[in-house]
């Protein structure tokens, strides 16, 4: 327990950001969905990384979402809860059509000591390109080539 707390403290000192958010955009959305992240869980995420969800049960225990902030009843955090509920609906809808739901991290944007990881949804019927690599669905499996 103490080692885990020490590890979190060290990572919070190393990460220069006050907060980290996943900003997910797709052509279906009216606006960008912003999900708060745990700094230590998202510290090692970089451009081109794929976040993979294959079960509705996983939505309540993703290691990279800050559920304390999502579930907070503070009036300043209501939008996080609304965005998370919208995200859950999108994932559930996608999982009803496909075997999995995938998000690719595109870039990191730093605004006033807050890190936003700009992400987009990978649709099974599309091919996207990131950093010179390509993500190609092949036999219902996702392969990344660089």
Task: Please provide a written account of the structure.
It contains 4 helices and 8 strands, in the order αββαβααβββββ. It is an alpha+beta fold and 146 residues long. It has one domain. A hairpin with a 7-residue loop joins strand 1 and strand 2. The protein is globular, with a radius of gyration of 16 Å. The C terminus is likely disordered.
SSE topology string: HEEHEHHEEEEE
Tell how many strands the DSSP assignment holds.
Answer: 8
Shape: globular
SS strand fraction: 25-35%
Give the total of domains.
Answer: 1
Q: Characterize the main sheet.
A: 5 strands, mixed
Compute the average pLDDT: 77
Distance between the termini: 39 Å
Low-confidence stretches are 127-146
| Class of secondary structure makeup | alpha+beta
Overall radius of gyration:
16 Å
Number of helices: 4
Which strand order does the major sheet show? 2-1-5-4-3
Helix content: 25-40%
Short description:
With 146 residues, the protein is of the alpha+beta class.
Compile the SSE list and pairings.
Elements (H helix, E strand, L loop, with lengths): L1 H13 L4 E7 L7 E5 L1 H4 L7 E4 L13 H4 L7 H20 L3 E11 L2 E9 L5 E3 L2 E6 L2 E5 L1
Parallel strand pairs: 1-5
Antiparallel strand pairs: 1-2, 3-4, 4-5, 6-7, 7-8
